[in-house]
Amino acid sequence: MNGATIYIDDGMTLSIRIHRCRVSVQEKQREATSLHLTVFLGIVLAVHLAMNGKVGSVINNARVANALFWCTGALWAVVIGLTGWRAGALGPLRQVHPVLLV
After folding, report:
1. Euclidean distance between CA atoms 6 and 15, whole angstroms
2. Domain-embedded: residue 2
3. N or C: the chain end with fewer CB closer than 10 Å?
4. Within a domain: residue 89?
5. Domains of the chain: total
6. How far apart are CA 64 and CA 28, in angstroms?
7. Do residues 67 and 55 touch, judged by C-beta distance below 8 A?
């Protein structure tokens, strides 16, 4: 991180000292990964909203189009869950506070 410290001596002299800190390679990689994930999610969201809007305009009902997209997403979540299921996958769920599951 960069920073600056401003010193005022005897009310008349102003001196500025700039501090430079080194950024580790891991921190740069973490920032790059975060940036890539943000861009990817932004693209996915933009495509999803465009498709949802197109379906809504074709069937002339935005609520039904949104429900269609939610149902399609739920169906794919079930398919993914069934194909990658392992025994005891929901065992740790007992440790989660019930309010968080609502």
Report:
1. 6
2. no
3. C
4. no
5. 1
6. 44
7. no
